[in-house]
Amino acid sequence: MKIRLMASLLAGVSLFGLTACQEHHGENGSKIIPQATAQQSSEEADVPAAQSGRAVETETGEIHNDMLVMDTHLDTPAYFHTQEYDFSQRQSFEEDGTHVDLPRMKAGGLDGGFWVIFTAQGPLDDASYDAARNSAVLRQMAIRELAAKYSDEVELAFTADDAQRIADEGKRVVYQSMENAYPLGTDISMLETFYIGGLRMVGPVHFRDNQFADSATDVSGEEFGGLSPLGEELVQKANELGMILDGSHASDETVYDMIEVSETPVILSHTGVDGVYDHYRNIPDELLTAVADDGGVIQINAYGSYLEALEPSPERQQAMNELKAEYGDDYYDMDEETRAAYSEARDEVDAQYPEPRSTFDKFMEHLLYALELVGPDHVGMGADWDGGGGVEGMSDITFLPKVTAALLEAGYSEEEIEKVWSGNMLRLLRAAEEARTSELTSPGVLN
Ligand SMILES: [Zn+2]
After folding, report:
1. From the CA of 14, how far away is ligand 1's center (Å)?
2. Per-residue pLDDT at 16
3. Within a domain: residue 383?
4. Which of 392, 384, 312, 321 is nearest to 354 (CA)?
5. CB within 8 A of 445, min separation 6: which ones?
6. Tell me: the pLDDT tens digits for 403-438?
7. Are residues 293 and 362 in the same domain?
8. 319 & 303 share domain
9. Domain for residue 414, yes or no?
């Protein structure tokens, strides 16, 4: 499967929910804020620091690079076992739809973060649980293999203290999280297996209700009104092991239940706010306040269609309708030949009628709104890179210094900004470690 299509499949339930798009920017998004160019959008030029003098940009770039910069939702591991993706080579969003690789991590000053073991939601039966478990185990292996292959450049992280140590050694930090606990089936002890492999964050649910919890986006109605009894066991097991609980994709009621059941604060690893755009995947002020009051953190998402309502052009809509009529709307139902044909047709539509995109300004609106409401101890970054994140003006991780610049411009101190980049999520990991009761260990080398 082409990486570009994988990117859209990772990002939405439907093939017709998201496409990669056609933004252009130079390949010079280096340690300083990318220079405004003729190709860059007006939104991008609106970022004050991008318009200021080179000295200021360099200074901001240095401030950014001196910080420990982490993102709590890197979906890139979905590419690790593909032929096309090469972590060591600088790839580009324009060419293949990707956001993250080693050269771009260095260029954007991204020290690392949580790398995701994602599993799409499937049927709730034993055979499907087994298949999901196998693919999740292999995904964790892919993350570990990457760390082993590039051991001079990246390192698996297991404790909160590991992050700064690894970054100080000039390496990238690889924590692991699980998006959708579906592959655990009904055997909660499977979480121990993933813990031993390095898992330190788990979110119960994805796009649809599952055995653990109600999803934010399941239109079929509430299954449990929050966590199921098995979901409560999952939260307790995560506490026992010292993992952070992730409420992204969970329904509001599920997040409230997680706050109540969990002994340690909850994270929302990639989520936006209803205060800017009322959407199922975003959260209302009162829930965000409840998360913060409990000591938790919201990590702001840069996923366009959760940032604002995006209307496709009539031409694109028509082309997508025609694709749907010809191929159906479930990629996983297609046979191999049909998938290939669909992929090619989809590329053509995307090239001819690019999907509308949200903007850096809109992303900043969500970030600043959350900061205003709950303060810099409870907000962070989880942009959903390689999972559908990225906006006009911040199309990949090389643009991250712009976020630091915009936060400085908004009056936040360097100390506060570093909390946003990494301090808050590490505080949650530390809290999870302190509360753990399990004796299990995670060896760096598994024998
Ligand atoms: Zn997600």
Report:
1. 14
2. 36
3. yes
4. 312
5. none
6. 999 999 999 999 999 999 999 999 999 999 999 999
7. yes
8. no
9. yes
